Amino acid sequence: MQRTPDIAGAQVAPALWPLAMLQSRMATALMAADDAGRELPAALFAGAMPGAEGLRVHRNTVLGGLSHALRQTYPAVDQLVGEAFFDRMAVEFSRAQPPRAPQLGSWGHGFVAFIDGFPGTGNLPYLRALAQFDARFDELARRVPDDRHAGVAVPLHGELNLYFTAGLLVHSSSYPVAALREAILADDAAALAAVDLACGEQHFAMWRTAEGVMLQPLGAAAASYLRAVLDGGTSEQALAAALSAGDSPEGAVAAQLQQEILQARFVRVATHNNAATGAGQ
Amino acid sequence: MSQSLASSPIPARAGIGLRLPHQSMVATERPTAAWFEVHPENYMADEAALAELEQLRAHYPLSLHAVGLSLGSAVGVEAAHVARLRDLSERLAPGLISDHLSWSVANGHYLPDLLPLPYTEEALAIVCRNVGQVQQALARTLLIENPSTYLCYASADMSEAEFLAAVVQRTGCGVLLDINNIYVSARNQRRDAHEVLAHWSQALDHRSVGEMHLAGHAVVATTDGAELRIDDHGDRVCADVWSLYAAAIAEFGVLPTLLEWDTRLPDFRVLQEEAQHAQQLQDDYTSLPLARSSRADFRNQANAAHA
Is the pLDDT of residue B4 over 70? Predict the structure, then answer.
């Protein structure tokens, strides 16, 4: 009879393995990268189907399920590198950082760092930035649309407040990720080739509406203002952040804030007593 | 066991598994469907989808079919996951809640699959403990589904049907009988699916069966060229499984029956067609005279179609 050491070092026939031991060994075998690690004693199994065949079915289901979950979060990365290469990255990531809970939609944040520098991606310097941008879209898509601008409220002056959409965020990237993502998801090779990768740092406001995830490019000053506000700063602190963000003259900064913040769809200007009405609608 | 009041019970009709790609269309167009079933784990990290499901819930009976409780885990069920399911149950007031006779958590990790249990006394005690804890936390009974199996353990000292019947007896839970899974498991073990169904009928208290599932599956070859059936929920229900379903209706009566489709998801209209097929079989059966001989004829016809 084939025997295997148990946790305490004693010999236990596979058919007598306690359930905890069986599940631990099988989980390890299903996630193993090498053939030796995938083996379980044949004596563990009975029936018409060889154990190795059954394990192969389960391994494919587990790893396929994890790849599928990551593919939902990172569609542009998937489209860019292709299904087979994405699966390779996803399987290696799944083995390195397996999920701890069944709601897979909240798993996989480490994938962004994991694929940075992944062998074979040297010609895609923007891969990490693209993955971060995918993750931002996914994060916002899972939020309930906020038509009431129920997020941060900031006193403007007098009796006016700025009311921001809940979940609003500022995303900055060293690459033109919006143009890259749009071209990749449209499968437009010409548009992708035309993207200027050296265009410098890009900033975007991102938020969720009933129509989907919204995106608005921001200048450096507007991005700094908005980021300061969303971090809990006062309007004065945010204004100071905007002024120190670039070398634009004060008047240019004011014009940028007027155009990119006060007139944006993600903000509403209203009186303290009537947040639902007012300018900026 | 106290049963929470479900605001809309699941009717004994053919329902449809609702998947996220169809949900917005269903919410806006409200197509014909007797009821829907969803996987709660898909809504635990997606507030937008959950809000939409809540809207939709006002128009259709809803069942929650969990895949992540890991009722067979030796380490026990995860309290946080049970709490998430309880929260969803309170928000959605489902007519039924179910999960599988399987495990998916070990070594602190979640494996997205329905992994098979050895049908031993030790496993039975563990499953009963876990089911009891979940039912207590949810304050309602669970239905437990037989999974498709690709492995059998040498240590098993009872059949799957006998094991689940014992879980029912000890915990008061119900059974979700997956007809496609019975078929897939039987074929993979080179057994006759109708004989296996007859064994289920013998082993179970028929009153415990609260729902049935139907789905398509794939037929592939093993590495040595043998036939392997994989429960991928990626095709129409095959003729053999329709025949087995007719036999199951004759054995257990007309019950809420769900048409599941998960991979290569087609247009919603295809799911409606499949559900209509199941509904027709239910209607054929209920239109029969109540005489025992008529019901027996129905069962014999189903078995003859199989033969």
Answer: no
